Amino acid sequence: MAARRRPISEINVVPYIDVMLVLLVIFMATAPLMTQGVDVDLPNTDSKPLSNEQDDPLVVSVDDEGRIFVNTGMPRPGQEGTRVTIFSLADQAEKIIGARPDIAVYVRGDQAIAYGEIINVMTVLQRAGAQSVGLITDPMDTIE
């Protein structure tokens, strides 16, 4: 009687690893393209540009209707972040700042919005633990 062979019960995982590596490369290439922002009409002023040394700052945007949006990373025009209320902003900012105490915090406020609205947002951010809160403006058009 001939000896019976036992079936091999191992799974070849090499093709799965190849697929996972391809997916990893795709996600790494597309992640920087997924930044978000809110289109606001920023006031123009003669100020220094922000340094690019800071990774993913916390940017809170207030549009001309008073809606508040939270972004991590510098926003791009035409893209919206996560919309929040002034009350939920405190919770979200506290979680983000608690996880990264050294995070840079900026406020982008539309020039048509009341000054008091921006101050309310800045106060909430400072109570959430932000060391300092910066304001983002558009560069002033210079005529030479």
Mean pLDDT: 78
How many whole angstroms does the radius of gyration measure? 24 Å
**Which percent range fits the helix content?**
25-40%
- Order of strands, widest sheet: 4-3-2-5-6
Multimeric organization: single chain
Write a concise synopsis of the structure shown.
The protein is α/β, with parallel strands linked by helices and 144 residues long.
Detail the topology: elements first, then pairings:
Blueprint: H1 14-30, E1 44-45, E2 58-62, E3 68-72, E4 82-84, H2 86-99, E5 105-109, H3 115-127, E6 133-136, E7 138-139
Parallel strand pairs: 1-7, 2-5, 5-6
Antiparallel strand pairs: 2-3, 3-4
Helix pairs in contact: 2-3
Describe this structure in words.
It is built from three helices and seven strands; from the N terminus they run H-E-E-E-E-H-E-H-E-E. The N and C termini lie far apart (100 Å). The protein is elongated, with a radius of gyration of 24 Å. With 144 residues, it is α/β, with parallel strands linked by helices. The protein has one domain (35-139): Nucleotidyltransferase, domain 5 (2-Layer Sandwich). Helix content is 31%, strand content 18%. The model has no long low-confidence stretch (mean pLDDT 78). The strands form two sheets. Strands 4-3-2-5-6 form a five-stranded mixed β-sheet.
